[in-house]
Amino acid sequence: MQSLRSHFLRHKLLVLSGSETFAGARSLISSIGTCSSSLLNPPVHFRSNSFHSRDRRWEEESRDSPASREGEEVHKSSTYFDPLEAKIKAMPVVDERDDSGGEAEESINTMSAAKVSSSSQERSSQETHENEHNRLSFAGVKRKSGKTKTTWFCENCGDIQAKWWGTCPNCEVVGKFKCFVESEVSKSRGAEISEALVSSWLPQELKKSAPISLAKVRTGTDQSKWRIPLEGQFGLEFCRVLGGGIVPGSLVLIGGDPGVGKSTLLLQIAAIVARGFNHKGPAPVVYASGEESIEQIGSRAQRMRITTKELFLYSNTDIEDILDKITKLSPRALIVDSIQTVYLKGVTGSAGSVMQIKECTSALLRFAKQTNIPVFLSGHVTKSGDIAGPRILEHIVDAVFYMEGDRHTSYRLVRSVKNRFGSTDELGVFEMSESGLQAVTNPSEIFLSEKFSDSDVLVGRAISVSLDGSRIFLNEIQALCVSNCPVKRHFNGIEDGKASMIISVLMKQAGLKLDNNFIFLNVVGGFKLSETAGDLAIAIAISSSFLEFPIPNNVVFIGEVGLGGELRSVPRMDKRLMAVSQLGYKRCIIPETANKLLKALNLEIEVVCCRNLKEVINFVFRSES
After folding, report:
1. By C-alpha distance, which of 221, 212, 268 is closest to 249?
2. In terms of pTM, does the model score above 0.85?
3. In 10 A of CB 259, how many CB atoms?
4. How far apart are CA 524 and CA 528, in angstroms?
């Protein structure tokens, strides 16, 4: 028993001083009873000092050891426990400091060491192969110098993440995330495609470009004939938003909510341009759709009574194919519905991705500028109401128009947000009918109810004048004050903060006891009143409902209400009063500060100037109307 213990201690110290793996010594304790005799034969010389095998003193002591003097060799081996085979194994340790380059002798268990070496090499080779496979799978594309965007997507469900996940957060499948790198090679792909397609059918003299004097540009362009006109009431209303007509070579983007009427608007524009009244006669116009088939577009055109023969329909989502097909027609205009559904083959990402939208828009812009063909695009919007896609999309195009409207009403507004060829203050008003969009000649009729003669109906009703761009709108504001109601306040078309402020001013400055009243406010027609010019009308409508005193139906209120109850002037007061006079109203109440600006105007309307809310209430509810 004493001999076995001494042999074990010698072997353990040898492992501690010169072995590569110390874990084998731990496993040796549990298996020493069965395997110690085979491991420690022949005996290994134990040095007196516990120096490391790489230490100089280890070499000096090795030369002076009895085994060296007697010609005996000291075996250097690494011992470990293999849990798979439940055996203690040893493998030779190659001495890297051996100048003669000789190999270390095999240990006692030569067969076990060979098996261990073979299995270790197989595992190492397998791990190297798996690492190489994972590197290729995750990297996908070799990253180049410069800015690149890397995203990770799940092969099982298609979920996209900004970093790698071992388990997909969406489908909870392990090991399905792959790397996707947007290479810099695709950055110029849109320009290359548009350049190649446009250059293939442009005249040779147009391909050569050079700087031109501004005087020559102005001399050679007739502004009256340069733009493409649109006839009819619909065309005139849309030309108001465009700034006078369609500019050749322009790129126009029209956005709006789903179902608001973007495709209907573009189809009507295409039909008018194809007919070409008062502009060089009929000419081809191509309507390319990536959302509808040709039969579906034809059915809508039949419902809208569009029968022009020069309108060509094409259903495809490949920009390269669309531009290639229309070269034979040389169209007067091109319409793409929509920009989020088209793609370029050489650009990474699917249709609607950031890179695809940017490159497709760049290709269409280059096509429009070099061929002088106007291009109209329709765009989807996000939940917040912005155009879907990168913000650079709105920077690339020449004009951006938003189509607005409540799905419960038939009226549509086309608002200009960006226009390089006209003013952004213009607003187009249309009404959706079975035959398409119809222009509204008097927009104020939308937001005014019928003029009832019964005085009871006129309680809590006031007319305000709002300015949207260059268009004047008369809005009817209705108020209702009740003493017992489960809902305390409800405002429709008016901001909660503004309505609460006006109510507080009426209580504090005008002396109305509105504490125990439940107040409801509504703007007729679904109009959202955001301008301060409607403050006075809101205050008078609430006062009329609270006092149960009707307001004369020929009175209009214009002015901003301050916290002190004072009335403040609003911009473009002269234009507002002229519009009110043309609509047949007889009296208008405005702030006193605006009276100086109206002395030069010859208006057929009575203008009443007041300083604060108290004066307005005393005049409206006590004077003879």
Report:
1. 221
2. no
3. 9
4. 9
Beta strands in 316-426 (DSSP E): 333-337, 375-379, 399-404, 411-419
Q: Could you tell me which of 303, 271, 308, 306 has the C-alpha nearest to residue 287? A: 271
Which of these, 553, 561, 545, lies nearest to 616 by C-alpha position?
561
Q: Where are the alpha helices (DSSP H) in 375-462?
A: 392-396
* Mean pLDDT computed over every residue of the chain: 76
**Token pair 């495709």 is at which residue?**
263
Q: How far apart are CA 262 and CA 379, in angstroms?
A: 9
pLDDT, tens only, 326-357:
988 889 999 999 899 999 887 888 888 888 89
Q: CA quadruple 158, 159, 160, 163: dihedral positive or negative?
A: negative
Run of H or E including 474: strand 471-482
Three-state secondary structure readout of 251-306: EEEEEECCCCCHHHHHHHHHHHHHHCCCCCCCCCEEEEECCCCHHHHHHHHHHCCC
CATH of domain 447-622: 3.30.230.10
Residue 556 in contact with residue 580, Cβ under 8 Å? yes
pLDDT confidence of residue 82: 63
From the centroid of its chain, how far is CA 371? 30
| Cα torsion 215, 221, 224, 229: sign | negative
Q: Which tokens sit at 45?
A: 């010389």
Report the first-to-last Cα separation within the chain, whole angstroms.
127
Output the six-digit token pair for 233. Answer: 């009431």
249-289 pLDDT, tens digit per residue, is 999 999 988 889 999 999 999 999 999 877 788 999 999 99
The single-letter DSSP state of residue 604 is S
Matching residue, tokens 């008018």: 272
Cα separation of 545 and 408, whole Å?
A: 28
With a CB cutoff of 8 Å and minimum separation 6, the contacts of 377 are: 251, 252, 253, 254, 335, 336, 337, 338, 339, 361, 364, 397
Beta bridge mates, 433: 436
Q: Where are the alpha helices (DSSP H) in 42-109?
A: 56-63, 66-69
| Residue that has been written with the tokens 């099982």 in this structure | 156
Contact by Cβ (8 Å): 182, 336:
no
Residues 6+ apart with CB under 8 A from 144: 183, 184
Closest CA to 543 of 452, 449, 461: 461
Angle at 151 between CA 149 and CA 155, to 5 degrees: 150
At 208, the pLDDT band (50, 70, 90 cuts) reads low
- CATH number for the domain whose boundaries are 190-211+225-441: 3.40.50.300
Give the residue from 472, 434, 470 showing the smallest Cα distance to 303: 434
321, 197 in Cβ contact below 8 A? Answer: no
Find where tokens 């059918």 sit. 201
For 311: left if phi > 0, alpha if psi spans -120 to 50, otherwise beta; the answer is beta
Q: Which residues pair with 419 in a beta bridge?
A: 399
- DSSP conformational letter for 605: S
**Burial letters 570-589, b for 16+ CB under 10 A, else e:** beebeebbebbbebebebbb
